[in-house]
Amino acid sequence: MPDLDDRHWLQQAIDLSRSCPPTTTAFSVGAIIVSSDREVLSTGYSRETDPHDHAEEIALTKIPANDPRLPHATFYTSLEPCSKRASRPQTCTQLILAAAIPRVVLAWREPTIFVDCEGVELLEAAGVAVVELPDLAQEVKEINANLLD
């Protein structure tokens, strides 16, 4: 169930996705990790440092894996975390699970343009609380309109 801050932080993640260098081979995604006391722990966006970067992995690389705030944090991402990936050894879903982040909030489930994503299902199966705010999905679709034609 969404809390009052979810819409604010998810909108911030969506706004970050606008920073992504354009491409025709991957979605533009923004991600923010927020502590239980509403402190931004880390941010990331797709292709931030490398053409193969995903927003979630970038955000996670900016914070120590053993940070004691992660098991109480919320991960905000404009698009469902990937569950299949060719360019890296671990998917974003696996990285979130390894970080022990207990809650993920997203706007849009990944459409089957590139892969059949099962990020939400895998996170929920592992006990992660997943909250979707689908009313924000239209903005994410507009940012990624070049892939939806």
TrEMBL record:
InterPro entries to which the protein is assigned, alphabetical: CMP_dCMP_dom (IPR002125), Cytidine_deaminase-like (IPR016193)
Domain CMP/dCMP-type deaminase: 4-130
Molecular function GO labels: catalytic activity
Pfam family, one: dCMP_cyt_deam_1
Record SUPFAM superfamilies: Cytidine deaminase-like
Family annotation (PROSITE patterns): CYT_DCMP_DEAMINASES_2 (PS51747)
Name of the protein described by the UniProt record: Diaminohydroxyphosphoribosylaminopyrimidine deaminase
Organism: Kribbella steppae
